Amino acid sequence: MISSYEKILKTAQDLRWEIGGDFHEKIMESLYTDASQIADRATTHPGEEPRFDLDRMIDRLVTSRIWGFPLMLLLLTGVFWLTITGANYPSGLIFTLLIEIIHPLLKGVSASIGIPWWIDGVLLDGAYLATAWVVSVMLPPMAIFFPLFTLLEDFGYLPRVAFNLDHIFRRAGAHGKQSLSMTMGFGCNAAGVISTRIIDSPRERLIAIITNNFALCNGRWPTQILIATIFIGTLVPSHLAGLISAVAVVSIALLGVLLTFVVSWALSRTVLKGEVSTFNLELPPYRPPRILRTLYTSVIDRTLVVLWRAVVFALPAGIVLWISSNLLINGVSIAEYLINFLNPFGLLLGLNGVILVAYIVAIPANEIVIPTILMLTVLVSGMTGMGEGSGVMFELESGMMTLDLLRMGGWTLLTAVNLMLFSLVHNPCSTTIYTIYKETGSVKWTTVASLMPVFMGFVITFFTAQIWRLFTG
Asked: Of 247, 284, 254, whose CA–CA distance to 58 is shortest?
């Protein structure tokens, strides 16, 4: 009987005869051939014209010390301009369809078949309207922004952004690979936290985890785009509105990058002191984006996944908001009690009680901040039926737009600016908080990463409000 040892020797012998006696020579020849081709592309002999290399020519521009950052800002501004300009019309159509047409139709059907007012309110004025707000506000900008962002990613540009930022991260006392985890955080902060595993140093990895929340994630882009469009874009002529709104959003994103540098520098020189590690960053080749794959990745894996997550959290949030706005104590709803309690502190920060309540409700997901704000704004603006038999969370008049609604709730330009700032600097969502705990295994550092941004957000909005009021009287 043939032993396993003999079987292995026989298999090795058979394979040796199959590959032939010149196998080693063939491997060495292929290695030297590849090396010669690489050297031939990278060197120029005396008297020869320099070879045209498109990748190197592009890299000379996008990674240039002079042109790298201006081109980065130009590309980001262009992406946001296309998003803001292109999202206005479809967003209006979806708003009209879901809220101005379908919602009254559903209310009529409910009344005709005699559904109790509280069931009607929970399902139609709570769950349905919250979902409708999420879809109308978030779907159009995401359907434009994510494909454009994915195109830059597939083309190979985002690693060049990390390359440009590497030197600054090292100067801040952080690891250069933090630029990669920060870039990942612009898609999802939880994914950005997980991507810090590429950093070998525990100290530098912890810095990257704590500061990743300053990268605007998927759930916060729609808030930034909407507020910039309806408040800042309306300050200039219509032909400049999209550009100015895009510049405002880019400015907030850049502020997040600046805060990442500042906090990384502070941590690396106080509680997380240590030597900065070095690493090699290999830039991938440029490649033409594959349109079908880009559309699939951006629409299925990003737009619809983020939208579905928002809808999943918006449904129960809408129900809770409706119940809290219709459950009365001494003639005042629970929601109004909470809003009135937080309103003085909110006004001190240049915000209001509605925004603070919305961010408490939206801890599970940043995507539901705007729908929650809109629903609560209607409540405190006196456009809601509060007694038995009405049960209506809110019903907008035909043609009323989001800007009109927020202005009726007492919003000013300061409120909008500070909301954009607070959207950047506040606590991570529950998924990111859980991910931070799983990655660090520490309640202490999870608490620091969760509460430090909130404290910073309060400080930034407070000083912004005081300076604003000082100069505007």
From this structure: 284
Beta-carbon contacts of residue 54 (< 8 Å; ≥ 6 apart): 286
Q: Which of 218, 276, 264, 243 is nearest to 428 (CA)?
A: 218
pLDDT tens for residues 187-198?
678 878 888 887
CA angle centred on 176, ends 175 and 182, rounded to 5°: 95
The tokens of 351 are what?
């915000």
Cα 247–238–80 angle (5° rounding)? Answer: 30
Overall average pLDDT of the 448-464 stretch:
95
What residues are paired with 333 via a beta bridge? 328
- Please, what's the b/e burial string for 206-230 (b: 16 or more CB within 10 A of its CB; e: otherwise)? bbbbbbbbbbbbbbbbbbbbbbbbb
For residues 18, 20, 26, 27, the Cα torsion angle rounded to the nearest 10 degrees is 60
3-state secondary structure of 333: strand
292-307: average pLDDT: 74
* CA 252 to each of CA 142, 420, 465: distance values in angstroms, whole numbers, following the listed order: 18, 7, 16
CA angle 86, 89, 95 (to 5 degrees): 130
C-alpha 281/C-alpha 283 separation (Å) is 6
Question: How far is it, in rounded angstroms, from Cα 17 to Cα 2?
Answer: 21
